[in-house]
Amino acid sequence: MAMDLQEIARHIDEHQQQGREMDKVTLSYPSLKVEDAYKIQRICMEEAASRGDSLIGWKMGLTSAAKQKMVGVEEPIYGRLTSSMEMNSSVLSMEGLIHPKVEPELAFILKKDLKGENIRPRDVWMATDCVLPAIEVIDSRYRNFSFTLEDVVADNASSTKFLLGDQAFSPYEKAWDKMGVSILKNGEVQHEGVGSDVLGHPVRSVAELVNMLHKEDLGLKAGMVVLTGGFTEAVNVEEGDEILVDYEGLGTLSMSLSK
Ligand code: 0L1
Ligand code: MG
Predict the structure, then answer these.
(1) pLDDT tens sequence across 142-197
(2) Could you list the residue range(s) of the whole structural domain that residue 70 is in?
(3) Where are the transmembrane segments (predicted)?
(4) Is the N end or the C end of the chain the one with fewer CB atoms within 10 Å?
(5) Which of 162, 146, 161 is nearest to 73 (CA)?
(6) Which atom of ligand 1 is nearest to the CA of 61?
C-alpha cells in the first residue's frame, strides 16, 4: 500500500480521539520507519492543536528494563504531552479509555529552554526548576498493547493522561537515583523500583530526550513538563481501583478510577 503519512496520522488521531482499538499500522505499512513514525506523531500533534489542544511537554517511554521487557521494545522513545492530557483531579474516568495502565514517574519542570546535541545531566539541572511526583496513564490504541517500535512511536508512545503531585521539590532535594518507589493497587503492592531503574538516573532521561529531539531540530521550552519514564512495570487498572504511589521520603500520590 502506498504510504501517505497524513492519512496514517488521521487514522491514528481518530482512534486516539474516540478511544478505539486498531490494528498495528505496520501490518498495512511494513516498511514504515521510526523516522516516519515520529513524523506521524508530529502530524497528530498538529491535528490536536487545530482542535485547541496545546503542546505542554514531552514524555520519555521505555526507559527502564522492566518496561522494555514488558512490551518487547528495547529502546527509549518519546511522546508529546498536551494540555488535555493533564488531569486536574486525582479521579480518572474510564470513559473513552480502552485498556489503561498506570505507572509511577517523575516530572521535571523546566525554567529555561533546552536544545542541542550532547546534552549532559548538568545541562539539565541548570535548566530545571523543580521535580514533581507523577503518575502516567498509558492506553495503547493497539489491540492487546501489542506493537512494534514504529507502531508505538506513531501512537504517541501510548500517551493518554498524566497526574502531577501538588508538591514540587527542589532538583537538589535528594539523590533521585536512590529514591525507592512502590505502586499499590487497592492496598496491595504491585511493583517496586528505584530511580536508577530509569536509565541509571531520571535526569539522564531528560538529557536523552533533548538529544533525540535535536535530530528533528526540536527542543524543550521553559515551563514544559517532562515525564522521565516509568520506574516499574505498568499496572492494569479498571473502574473502582485505587492507586497509590509511595515516593520514598516525599510522600504519596493517589488516583481513583471512576466510571
Ligand atoms: O510510558 C511508557 O513507557 C509507555 C511507552 C509505550 C509502551 C507502552 O505502551 O507500554
Ligand atoms: Mg510512561
Answers:
(1) 999 999 999 999 999 999 999 999 999 999 999 999 999 999 999 999 999 999 99
(2) 5-258
(3) none
(4) C
(5) 146
(6) 3
